[in-house]
Write a structure and sequence with these properties.
Distance between the termini: 24 Å
CATH superfamily of the largest domain: Aminohydrolase, N-terminal nucleophile (Ntn) domain
Strand order of the largest sheet: 3-2-4-1-10-9-11
CATH architecture of the largest domain: 4-Layer Sandwich
Largest sheet: 7 strands, antiparallel
Helix content: 25-40%
CATH class of the largest domain: Alpha Beta
Shape: globular
Structural class: alpha+beta
Number of helices: 17
Strand content: 25-35%
CATH topology of the largest domain: Glutamine Phosphoribosylpyrophosphate, subunit 1, domain 1
Length: 469
Amino acid sequence: MYNDIFVKEDKLREECGIIGIYDKGNMEIENLTYYGLIALQHRGQQSAGIAVNRDGIITCYKEMGLVSEVFDDKILNLLKGDISIGHVRYSASGENFAANAQPLLVKYKNGNIAVAHNGNLINAGIVREHLEDQGMIFATTTDSEVIASLIARNYKVGVEDAILNMMGVIKGSYALVIMTNDKLIGVRDNYGLRPLVIGRRGNGYVLASETCALDTIGAAFVRDVEPGEIVVIGEDGIRSIHCSSIIPQSKCIFEYIYFARPDSIMDGISVNQARENAGMILAKEQPAEADVVICVPDSGTPAAIGYARQSGIPYAVGLIKNRYIGRTFIQPSQVSREIGVALKLNALKANIEGKRVVMVDDSIVRGTTSKKIVQALKDAGAKEVHVRVSSPVVTHSCYFGIYTPNRKELVGASRLTEAIKKKINADSLGYLSIEGLLESVGSNGEGFCTACFCGKYPMEILEGCINDA
């Protein structure tokens, strides 16, 4: 398993990124899919895959690695078609090996379908066992195959009804792109936990996890797929089917804190602006007497800019990020753990020496990396280091597609703020409140899942899912 021990050891892990394109007559659909996946690479770095449909025949190629490692011109030239779907993966469920890479290709009586999934089911084990009792054989350990199998199993009633039936069985989070013999279909879970947007490129349509992928391939944003909506794209254009269930929206708040690219817009909210707002509110809630504000790059940058703007304390670059480490240090050793922060992030001494520093980060999960960064700043001459976090204390695990550590490893689950401050050796520590976080996205307390901060999940978590008590 890819384990970036340097910075993301102290972050929640990414989910997955998906894209789908329907564009009859486009001779470069595979290249558009490839570049769309590059734009979504931040959502998953373990595996990548593309499936294309040409005259009703689906061809799929997927492998472990980054998008640029998995695909080259020779492979892409074999993936010609009119419809395509693509996937980048971080393993939220299922072991990390090539068979679990997506898209998944599932055969049924009259053909096959390809499915790419972002999210996580909380009842996948129960549904899988039921299907196995009925003779279904699974080729992977992913909950995504459960989704694909449910659709294929009921395909005789029509793909749309099969998807509606599937939505009535599964519980959890999902954004899906599904490719049939002649259609591209997008599906978003009833709560809207996982994002999915619609774009238009010429005469074709694009579905993607984020608007940044639309921008990259020159597609115009049309709208977000609504929670509980099925979008069907075919020769007759695009049409919509809504699930009959009316459920309060519960979009993942961590998309705005950390996961999404800052240039994306999600459900009408600019990610960058939300992060700047969070920094400004943080400065009001958790002020500090300091000489300079710095960020932990890159996701902490907008919040640090907002903090500096609100507080009047100058913003400066205090940590330099090495962008060329890539996936080199897969197996951590004691030596690499000790020098890891210096390899990934290095303090810019000229901007912090002799100064009282406010270090803004978007979250603290375990606290291990935060401690090393604080020490690196002090070793570079910082007089004081005041850590400010543009999200509340992470106290509970997520079961909806974000990989979180076992709850006993979450520093906020067992320690109060003062104890965390001592653990990371900061001169002071302040977190954004849940109310402040919701304010940053324009919410009055509704419409977002904040379970990782308060333990209030949007749906009942089955006992078998809870392994971190």
